[in-house]
Amino acid sequence: MLTDPVADMLARLKNANKALHDTVEMPASNLKTEIARLLRDEGYIKDYRIEKGESFDTLVIELKFGPKRERIITDVKRVSKPGRRVYATKDRLPRVLGGMGTAIMSTSNGLVTSRTAQELGVGGEVVCFVW
Prior knowledge:
Elements: H1 5-18, E1 23-27, H2 30-41, E2 45-51, E3 58-63, E4 76-78, E5 87-88, E6 102-107, E7 110-113, H3 114-120, E8 124-130
Antiparallel strand pairs: 1-3, 2-3, 4-8, 5-8, 6-7, 6-8
């Protein structure tokens, strides 16, 4: 049975965050790298890097914590799954926690947040919610 690579990434991220790890590693892909870039730009993680390997590259994400080691990421949720795709039109873009969270969407302009999608006036597939 093939697993969803994005769901795997989000599960690793959630588990490492819950266990207060400083970094989390996973096999790299363009989609995962773009999600990591958006998480960094939105301030949920410190940084990310891709380490070259013999058979496959590894995406290493550095998690971010508050001054008293409190978690920055409260939770992540996969919205659109391979068995049930979820799309949002430009008129009905998702809001996470009344604008406090971030929705990551796959649009014709690439992976963007719902705020950016609203500015661009595009809709697309809702990949995940982060708050």
